[in-house]
Design brief:
The complex is a heterodimer of chains A (161) and B (442). With 161 residues, chain A is mainly β. Chain A contains 1 helix and 13 strands; from the N terminus they run βββββββββββββα. In chain A, strands 1, 2, 3, 4, 5, 6, 7, 12 and 13 form a 9-stranded antiparallel sheet that branches. Chain A has a 4-stranded antiparallel sheet with strand order 8-9-11-10. Chain B folds into 2 domains: 184 residues, Pnp Oxidase, Chain A; 245 residues, no CATH class. The chains are: A mainly beta (161), B alpha+beta (442).
């Protein structure tokens, strides 16, 4: 889960009575933050007035494998290995496609040039939007250019949060 | 020493036989199922090109499993120089799990090797004209029947016979060139391992404080056989369902090279199909995975390093996993995990560990994502064996439900344990909720 708080992006832990906001960037902290060796964190009440958005996000793009019965829409995670040197990692999780790298049982992957991909988009599932707690999660789809897509995925990688 | 192998009365082999080995594999040391679910295996090796019907073995191996003729009665007699029967072993419903022939222009001789399993639940007869009976009498005819029996005395007798046989009883006439045998390749040097959490880190330090608490929450030996899904199935059904599930995929190690690109060659009998329908009902009604359900996944060294990476840690559980309560009792070491979780897929990094008795890493964790009872790998054009598509791993002995986490779902808590060949478990890493990664326990 992610949170926009005072215009900064954080990871959050939802601890029921409160949130814990987490970042690895010192520039996003103030004097109230505590730290581990790698991260900075702070507890905030759930009704903190500076909470702007709370959401989960999924990234998708289109790439045609030219194989029968293989969906052309691919989900890209914000894990670090997914975007590297203008290439994007596609993971197929319903079997082993010919020529693809076997990762584990029924999971294989392949790096493709991001220029071969199209229809970049992000799908947000928001529980708080513009400071307003939503009674039902709101799903928003955002179409993106290739560069916006890469930036957004990288922005949500743990080392950049 | 001479052998006589008779298969369904039609094929009689004597001169060509070089060695016979029999093995009784009990699935666990749990009293109530150690004998009744044991697997009986036999490997017969010999020479091709004598005037005997060795071609009949090859033809038998080619019969599809849905054909009743794939099950045959096999009698092996071992006779000493005095003409006395040293051992007679009879598999009443044997089926072929592996067959190979090797020919060499170097020595001009061909060799065959056939691996047989007995249908679980069928009788095995074992008798001798030379042995002292297991009860200590000097009877000239000691015999045993390995199928469970309500008679305590005969059970005890059979039990002793089986324990004797559990040390692989190989007799050989001559040296045999190495022949790849799928079912044997994963047979590790360990046996009878029992998962035991030592309460220490993998560096040997006694656990305290937070690490001790995490260890207690995720330790493997808290999960007992009797609480697993496998044990919840009535024994009478268990073996039939397990066998049918096992027949939905390839034999252990059969597809290490990935030559089976799908399950199209699997043909099931009506009996198997009926069992699978029943299994599908069980699958639908499994207790749900919840946010606090501890899931288990055996991970390789590469995945371990990704989870421990400080800058770019892997934060998700992906691919297939099972409830720890369902699989921990049946993954006491790398060898057991390899066989029962069917880690023998093409490209796996576990074969060597299983064979060498190396330690393995086991992740147990929770996630806010809760896969449903329909979230498991399904058969499609790209599904390679040993994937079953039934929602149960292709274990030969147990019914182990599996779930898929796809590309990955965020971990909320967890621990990674190191488990050695004897089942000794130590804490290697714990999930840090703030840093969102596993950190090594010193």
């Amino acid at each position: 889960m992610y949170m926009i708080y005072k215009n900064n992006l954080y990871h959050i832990l939802d601890e029921k009575s409160h949130y814990v906001i987490i970042t690895r960037q010192k520039s996003k902290t103030d004097a109230d933050f505590l730290s581990t060796k790698e991260s900075f964190y702070k507890e905030i009440p759930k009704d903190d007035k500076y909470i702007q958005d709370v959401y989960n996000v999924q990234f998708f793009l289109k790439w045609d494998s030219q194989l029968d019965d293989v969906d052309s829409m691919w989900e890209i995670l914000a894990e670090h290995e997914y975007i590297k040197d203008n290439k994007v990692l596609l993971k197929f999780v319903n079997g082993i496609l010919p020529g693809w790298e076997v990762e584990e049982q029924a999971v294989c992957s392949k790096y493709v040039d991001i220029d071969e991909c199209e229809d970049f988009k992000a799908i947000y599932t928001c529980t708080v939007k513009n400071g307003k707690v939503l009674t039902k999660p709101m799903v928003l789809e955002q179409k993106l250019s290739k560069d916006e897509f890469q930036d957004l995925v990288l922005e949500h990688q743990i080392k950049n949060i | 020493m001479a052998f006589k192998v008779t298969i369904d009365g039609n094929i009689v082999l004597e001169k060509c036989i070089e060695s016979v080995s029999c093995n009784v594999d009990t699935p666990s040391d749990v009293l109530y199922n150690a004998r009744t679910r044991c697997k009986n295996r036999m490997t017969i090796m010999g020479v091709v090109g004598t005037d005997e019907q060795t071609i009949g073995l090859y033809q038998w191996a080619l019969i599809p499993s849905n054909n009743n003729k794939s099950y045959k009665k096999v009698e092996v007699e071992e006779i000493n120089e005095d003409g006395m029967l040293v051992r007679k072993i009879c598999f009443k419903e044997a089926f072929v799990v592996g067959y190979s022939e090797t020919f060499s222009s170097h020595d001009g001789v061909g060799y065959f090797s056939i691996d047989l399993n007995e249908f679980i639940g069928s009788d095995i007869e074992c008798s001798s004209m030379t042995d002292v009976s297991s009860a200590g009498n000097s009877s000239s005819d000691a015999s045993a029947n390995t199928e469970s029996d309500s008679d305590n005395a005969s059970e005890e007798k059979a039990s002793q016979e089986q324990k004797t046989a559990s040390v692989s009883n190989q007799k050989s006439n001559s040296a045999h060139p190495p022949v790849f045998k799928g079912s044997e390749a994963a047979k590790g040097p360990t046996g009878g391992a029992k998962l035991t959490n030592l309460g220490v880190s993998s560096s040997g330090k006694k656990l305290e404080g937070k690490n001790l608490a995490i260890n207690e929450k995720f330790r493997g030996d808290q999960f007992k056989v009797e609480d697993s899904f496998d044990a919840s199935i009535d024994k009478a059904k268990h073996d039939a369902l397990t066998s049918a599930n096992y027949r939905t995929t390839c034999a252990l190690n059969e597809n290490l090279d990935g030559h089976l690109s799908n399950n199209d060659n699997i043909k099931l009998s009506d009996k198997d199909k009926s069992c699978l329908n029943e299994l599908a009902e069980y699958r639908k009604n499994l207790s749900p995975v919840k946010e606090d359900t501890i899931m288990q996944k055996v991970i390789d060294e590469n995945q371990l390093q990704q989870y421990l990476d400080k800058d770019n840690p892997r934060r998700v559980i992906s691919g297939c996993a099972s409830k720890a309560s369902d699989v921990a009792p049946f993954t006491n070491n790398a060898d057991e995990a390899y066989k029962n979780l069917r880690l023998d897929y093409n490209g796996n990094k576990f074969l060597e560990k299983a064979q060498n008795g190396d330690s393995m890493y086991v992740m147990r964790c929770t996630s806010n994502y809760c896969p449903s009872n329909s979230d498991y790998p399904v058969i499609n054009a790209y599904t390679q064996p040993p994937c079953t598509g039934t929602g149960f791993l292709g274990s030969e002995s147990h019914l182990l439900p599996e779930y898929t986490y796809g590309r990955g779902q965020e971990i909320t808590d967890g621990a990674i344990f190191k488990v050695d060949k004897d089942g000794n478990e130590s804490l290697h890493a714990v999930w840090n909720k703030i840093d969102k990664r596993y950190e090594i326990v010193e």
